[in-house]
Automatic annotation (TrEMBL):
Stretches that traverse the bilayer: 20-37, 43-63
Alphabetized UniProt keyword annotations: Membrane, Methyltransferase, Transferase, Transmembrane, Transmembrane helix
Protein name: Protein-L-isoaspartate O-methyltransferase
Superkingdom classification of source: Bacteria
GO MF assignments: methyltransferase activity
GO terms for biological process, alphabetical: methylation
Gene3D superfamilies, sorted: Vaccinia Virus protein VP39
InterPro entries noted in UniProt: SAM-dependent_MTases_sf
Length: 334
């Protein structure tokens, strides 16, 4: 590669007018040098003056361009700043919107939980909330099994939950008991009566509270189940077991019962935490059929029931036990 072409490569690329100006300046320089050397000093000075004018004009042109470029740079910088500020504003607005939306959601959730607490009488613990989908599923299955003839009250704090009811009704459908005794009446009495109406059994339910007995009676009547189920008033009375008095249903309410082949023990209520279910077996054992199913609400059963055979896993929602009469036990005869 020749030296000229190397220099040419290193020179910045010139535009057409720039090349023309440079060429004219080069020619003027060469002419001024030639005229000066040949003794035409006046012409040389004139040529140099023209060269100076051209340099001045070129410099002014360059300054103007530089000033324009600087102005354009300032404007571009200002536009950029405006764009960045606009984007920042939009970002802040979007974050604020999200924050408000999250706030709204939080408020809605808090309101829903409060409403739920109200519905469940203030007992909506986290565990209870977590159980809601399963309870809902069980409720759907309950209503698929029976079509109530009147509005069915929702389960409350004192009633068997839908999943417990579903298990209970399944057991009744399988075992088809002839006589069911329920200790503690309520909405469960209506569901049990619907099941027994289909299988051909009968329900006797005891209540210690005359008001609740009346309510259950009215419910059964509204559902047209008076022939299948009977509510008996059984105020709490001290019953003596092993030398101790325990509050239990008045035994008179059981006086005519025998061959009970299914028992649901869901009462009497235990306001002070005492296990009020304990006397139940002692009080009804001689009224049971030779084989009977005993369902007790709650996972634990009193130690005095150890002669019954557990049918389900310990810790289940309700204890399902089977009773088989031994020769030592004397049944009440019809
Ligand atoms: C555990 S509850 C029996 C509930 C019933 N087996 C049921 O599942 O619907 C025991 C007693 O509590 C009373 N009881 C029933 N429903 C009630 C309610 N909603 N509020 C307060 N006590 C109630 C009745 O006197 C009942 O005999």
């Amino acid at each position: 590669m020749s030296t000229i072409s190397r220099i040419h490569r290193r020179l910045p690329r010139l535009s057409g007018p720039q090349t023309a100006v440079m060429s004219v300046a080069g020619v003027l320089c060469a002419a001024a040098a030639a005229t000066a050397l040949t003794g035409h000093t006046g012409i040389a000075v004139a040529l140099l003056a023209v060269l100076g004018c051209i340099s001045l004009a070129t410099s002014m042109l360059l300054f103007r361009r530089l000033a324009r470029a600087q102005r354009a740079g300032v404007i571009a910088q200002r536009d950029l700043r405006t764009t960045v500020e606009e984007m920042q504003r939009r970002l802040v607005a979007a974050v604020e919107r999200e924050r408000l939306t999250a706030g709204d959601r939080h408020l809605e959730l808090a309101e829903a939980i409060a409403a739920l607490r109200q519905l469940t009488g203030g007992q909506a613990s986290a565990a209870r909330l977590a159980a809601l989908p399963a309870e809902f599923e069980a409720t759907v299955q309950l209503f698929q099994g029976f079509t109530p003839r009147a509005p069915m009250p929702p389960p409350g704090e004192h009633t068997l939950d839908p999943a417990g009811l579903l298990d209970l009704l399944h057991l009744i459908r399988l075992r088809k008991p002839r006589l069911v005794l329920e200790l503690g009446s309520g909405v469960s009495s209506v569901w049990i009566a619907y099941a027994l109406e289909k299988t051909g059994g009968r329900l006797i339910t005891l209540d210690h509270d005359a008001g609740f007995a009346r309510r259950t009676r009215a419910l059964l009547s509204a559902h047209g189940l008076d022939k299948t189920a009977e509510v008996r008033d059984a105020p709490l009375t001290p019953v003596g077991i092993d030398g101790h008095d325990h509050p239990w249903y008045d035994p008179e309410a059981l006086a005519d019962l025998h061959d009970i082949d299914f028992v649901l023990i869901d009462g009497p209520p235990a306001p002070d935490g005492e296990d009020t279910r304990h006397p139940a077996l002692h009080m009804i054992e001689n009224r049971l059929a030779d084989r009977a199913t005993v369902v007790a609400t709650g996972p634990d059963v009193p130690a005095s029931w150890s002669h019954l055979t557990p049918e389900n896993e310990p810790g289940s929602r309700h204890a399902v036990l089977s009773f088989t009469r031994t020769t030592a036990m004397v049944p009440v005869q019809a």
